[in-house]
Amino acid sequence: MIHSLFLINSSGDIFLEKHWKSVVSRSVCDYFFEAQERATEAENVPPVIPTPHHYLLSVYRHKIFFVAVIQTEVPPLFVIEFLHRVVDTFQDYFGVCSEPVIKDNVVVVYEVLEEMLDNGFPLATESNILKELIKPPTILRTVVNTITGSTNVGDQLPTGQLSVVPWRRTGVKYTNNEAYFDVIEEIDAIIDKSGSTITAEIQGVIDACVKLTGMPDLTLSFMNPRLLDDVSFHPCVRFKRWESERILSFIPPDGNFRLLSYHVSAQNLVAIPVYVKHSISFRDSSALGRFEITVGPKQTMGKTIEGVLVSSQMPKGVLNMSLTPSQGTHTFDPVTKMLSWDVGKINPQKLPSLKGTMSLQAGAPKPDENPTVNLQFKIQQLAISGLKVNRLDMYGEKYKPFKGIKYMTKAGKFQVRT
Amino acid sequence: MQRFLQLPGAVGRPGAKGACGPDQEAASPVLAPDGGPPPWYQALQPEELRWLQAPEEETTPEASLEGPCPEAGQGQGQSQPLRHDDLKEMLDTNKDSLKLEAMKRIVAMIARGKNASDLFPAVVKNVACKNIEVKKLVYVYLVRYAEEQQDLALLSISTFQRGLKDPNQLIRASALRVLSSIRVPIIVPIMMLAIKEAASDMSPYVRKTAAHAIPKLYSLDSDQKDQLIEVIEKLLADKTTLVAGSVVMAFEEVCPERIDLIHKNYRKLCNLLIDVEEWGQVVIISMLTRYARTQFLSPTQNESLLEESPEKAFYGSEEDEAKGPGSEEAAAAALPARKPYVMDPDHRLLLRNTKPLLQSRSAAVVMAVAQLYFHLAPKAEVGVIAKALVRLLRSHREVKQMVLRNAILFKTCGMFEPYLKSFYIRSTDPTQIKILKLEVLTNLANETNIPTVLREFQTYIRSMDKDFVAATIQAIGRCATNIGRVRDTCLSGLVQLLSNRDELVVAESVVVIKKLLQMQPAQHGEIIKHLAKLTDNIQVPMARASILWLIGEYCEHVPRIAPDVLRKMAKSFTAEEDIVKLQVINLAAKLYLTNSKQTKLLTQYVLSLAKYDQNYDIRDRARFTRQLIVPSEQGGTLSRHAKKLFLAPKPAPVLESSFKDRDHFQLGSLSHLLNAKATGYQELPDWPEEAPDPSVRNVEVPEWTKCSNREKRKEKEKPFYSDSEGESGPTESADSEPASESESDSKSSSESGSGESSSESDNEDQEEDEEKGGGSESEQSEEEGEKRKMKKRKKAPAGRGEGSSSDEDSESSSSSSESEETSESEEEQAEPASWKRKTPPSSKSSPAAKEVSLLDLEDFTPPSVQPVSPPTVVSASLAADLEGLTLTDTSLVPSLLSPVSGVRRQELLHRVAGEGLAVDYAFSRQPFSGDPHMVSVHIYFSNSSDTPIKGLHVGTPKLPAGLSIQEFPEIESLAPGETATAVMGINFCDSTQAANFQLCTQTRQFYVSIQPPVGELMAPVFMSENEFKKEQGKLTGMNEISEKLVLPDACRSDHVVVQKVTTTANLGRVPCGAAEEYRFAGKTLTSGSLVLLTLDARPAGAAQLTVHSEKMVIGTMLVKDVVQALSR
């Protein structure tokens, strides 16, 4: 399946290559560079590039292209999904996935890749198993390794792979047994000029951090499971129980993992927590334009909106902007024409606003599109869909774990057209 | 320069501190600047010094060159070999840390694409290194360079061959993995053997690795195909989820055309699917899609060719498995009601079992299911995939793009309509995504939603991304052509765009308007006039050309403007682009034909200009046009028809998506994406006219009997171990040979001991074998023939059983060292000696042995490698190890039940007390699946009553503290006269307390109890003589229990002693140098404490038995039991 993997940085250097079958010359990447040149932006590089003898499938993350070389028919998503899994694994191992980090840990990276694919077919991709095979480097371990000369390779052979629960390490032990669940919802919305919602949906995930001894069997139930329109599970979740009882029953992997992601799309259910009042006007034959934006809370269920960040890509004709925010700080980059305004918390008594003028290129016609405003915000302690976890029970182990649930709502792709 | 570095290395390396000579400093860039050795460097060893400079050199070779070191002036070509020498030295040391560092640096070189092949000899020596990380890195290196250095790579083969026999399944698996990854054609036979061997390994993980190895071997040597298909066939029958994905992958790569191999496994694959790992799921689903296309009828056709299958009940029990929230069931129920067509239950099974996978977190799996539904499901059901696909739109950019590409195809189903808004475009999307979304939106637009879609398009037109705007205009055009109601609205909208400042937008609009106008030209004179005015401003050639064509085509609607346009164009003719010039000629010709009075001169002027154009297309066109329109003297036939030719009514163009015509490739495939057949693409076959026989998928043989058959065959194909006997014999010390021989003897006799109890199951096996037919038949008869031979030589009634087992033994001594039966050993004491002589040079094993020994390069491996322990011991403990690791899947339990022949059955419930239900039990000595601490107990039920016994299960056990029971799965029904077997696990907590529990049927409960002999509470452990001695040394004093005894005469031969001991206790033999000493080792199951047993047999029958164990109670009891067994 996957023949080789090349890691290419944004300046076009191949800084890592790995082959699982016979060696493919790195000159195959020239086709990729060609496509990259044509695409102008990294994001526009097509994920599948056919070449005379090979096909190049790539993903672009963290400013690195992960280019897989394949030779025969294979579902492209299979490869792409795998490449993303590789990136996730690196991130999991090293905290960040960046070129210098990969270069520093090249041996670990190589070992991990070796375990992940056998002859181009994925072998061990569960992070719990991989970590048993090859321990992730930590500062402490690096120090110990240099002193004692021991290694990152697990000295015990992992048995997780062989067990009925391949995603869980065996022999897990903790003194504090804790299980944390974060319910995080993101609102994707497009709001039109007049402030009405064109489309809105909620994408939610439940991320878990489970540190429990032994082989705990957890069940998580919701107050209102019917809310969840479409769900996808971590493989550990027992599908049948969900289908019949709407209960999540699972033996969790050790550590951090995404238990569930779901989708709430029924439009009337989606409360839009903020509104944006805007008046952006360009005038023909005038070198000045007016700009005014006010952000205010709408349906917040009594919670404060934090971390508000307004950003907008201004039209090319805008030379500079002179603005005064009522709170927070703002920046305008005259090169990329990107305006961003870090608002912070919204105080309902005194709504934050940003006012001022834009100086336009003299003589140029007025831009025919008003800029779109992208919004980011956070609301703690609230799942905007109203999803609530009812209870979490543990079976199979005797101790009493500490259980914690956190709710959070964030803006996903939240756009206001002006 | 090389010498410089080598010298201090050679001198200083052995560990002498402070050996930094002057030459060392000269060579070391770190030391050089200081001139003399700074005192604090003295403490370091020279190798360590090199580390200090190493990273620098590694990451930036230039940096080290810039330093004031002596080699500064030399090129990089010079410094490269230097470093390699360095690495070589490091690899040659005894220190693991040095080796590791060297390997790390080499791997870093490989990673950066640097050539490290000249290090091959130095690296390959370390293949047997004990340090796991070094070993792993050496493997990485080997796999990378073995192809280039085939001869040297052979040096490593024997290490892997040894690894293949390791008792630890993970080591076996990794040995096979690396061995099969080395692309050296010479070792193909070895790989083939290893794969065959591993395919029948007890451990599912090793079998998985074997499945992975198949395509590797196939790509190396495609001549092996037939043999590989056999292996694939065997592995396809495997029942573990671990293996399923990998073997289907192998199937797809090696023999996708052998769809017949799937029949028998189809239902199993469908049922296992949900538990297979994600990657396997994708492969299996796409294979099953193809399979279903060949085996079932199209669900969209209306005729009923199949009748309701009687097998419906077969799936009844799984009905609840994949019940969607009513919707799917309802659809399934509604479907037959509407149509007479009845779906094959197997087809339904596939659809039902894949549906839950739409909820997978993996985009690849969701896509695979989506394509399966698209290609296989009835139209009404395809809709279920929409929701899942829309979910994927939230994923990474690349995934999004793939999904959109495929979503484009679904326009016919309209299943995305409810999700229209999910395809709305955000200004932050990358252009490619925007264009794909636009495509989907256009496809989704219909009479009802077109206003919303158009309003959305309105927003897009003002976007800053001009490519996107152009695409939007085209999309509007397509909407206008598809939906007549909005055509005028669209057209007027587009006309407004003509006043847009951006030329690209205008140009694109013109092109689209041109196409739209062709549909109803009469009403749009005004628009054409407006367009005509634009010719002054628009510079985009395509747009100009379009306008000219429009004016020419409809010149009668604008009789006054047209000649004027031509006049202008004639003026600027020379400066126009080719495409515009062609249209000018066209316009001129058309005007000449309709309005020759006004335009005759203009036309001639244009044609003369064109005649001398640089482009030959234009010259040709000009000549051709002139001949056509200007009547000449001679001909004129053509010119009479010129008007018809030029002004023929032309059909309106159909605006079509650039993504159409892709539906002939399987959805979600690479070929589909590229719209070109990729290498290795498997055509999705058309539905058959007539459904092939559905009964081919019936699997009637009960699971466990089938497996016994497999087991049998597996033993057949195990020449590997027996030849290893011959191979490693010579390398052993002289006295170990008799030991190993006696070992095999003892084992065979111990197996023969099982005769009586196994003969019955043997019979069963044979019957089933015959039933199964297939390849095993010949083997079977051969075996039987031999059996008969043996029988003749036997006097005892146990003979038959012995025959079969000795026969097995001669082929492979590796078969599981099952258990044995004391009561019969007496009769056989004399016997083994007679056939012992026959055993070793088994005819079957010798050719294979020769083949392998060709490559057995034992001498090249470093002497530090531990001598191989006698193979029989390995295999004994291997079997033991395997036991502990298999059975990961509970569904597998019955499959490994097979002939637990060597075990003495004990009665658990007499048939009188049990009202017709007779229950026996036996300690199978196989480890228990779920919990390694449990003793696995095989329970044999037989129903001697005349009514079926239903719902056999274990009731609430009343257990002493610490004991626990893992019940066997409920046996639903046991027909009269039938027998069934189940496995349960009991954790006895290292004590001989009885486990009491209830055995319940639907009507009755029986109290039963199982008390284990002390010997069953342990499992064999593999250890070397040295380890044994070491452990023994730790367990002295109170932990040492010894007893003197006198061995009876009958009990003096080696094998009898070994057999008796192993019968009494589940211990593994430990190799021993002294002839008169026997050692055994085991571990208690619950606590894992070692139990070491030594029997020191002196001449004349006196002997001393010593047991070392932390568990003193166990030790004492064990001594008692063994003494009893031996002195009987």
Provide structural commentary.
- The complex is a heterodimer of chains A (418) and B (1128).
- Chain A is of the alpha+beta class and 418 residues long.
- Chain A has helices at 29-39, 76-94, 99-104, 106-116, 127-133, 139-148, 239-245, and strands at residues 2-9, 14-19, 48-50, 55-61, 64-70, 117-118, 121-122, 178-191, 197-211, 217-222, 230-233, 247-250, 255-264, 274-282, 288-297, 306-313, 318-325, 329-333, 338-344, 353-360, 373-380, 389-395, 402-416.
- In chain A, strands 11-13-9-8-23-21-16-19-18 form a nine-stranded mixed beta sheet, with no helix packed on it. In chain A, strands 2-1-5-4-3 form a five-stranded antiparallel beta sheet.
- The two termini of chain A are 48 Å apart.
- The model of chain A has no long low-confidence stretch (mean pLDDT 84).
- Chain B is built from 50 helices and 15 strands.
- In chain B, the strands form three sheets. In chain B, strands 10, 11, 12, 13, 14 and 15 form a six-stranded antiparallel beta sheet that branches. Chain B has a five-stranded antiparallel beta sheet with strand order 1-2-3-7-5. Chain B has a four-stranded antiparallel beta sheet with strand order 6-4-8-9, with no helix packed on it.
- The chains are: A alpha+beta (418), B alpha+beta (1128).
- Chain A: Residues 176-417 form the MHD domain.
- Chain A: Keywords: Cytoplasmic vesicle, Golgi apparatus, Membrane, Protein transport, Transport.
- Chain A: InterPro entries: Adaptor_comp_med_subunit, AP2_Mu_C_sf, AP_mu_sigma_su, Clathrin_mu, Clathrin_mu_CS, Longin-like_dom_sf, MHD.
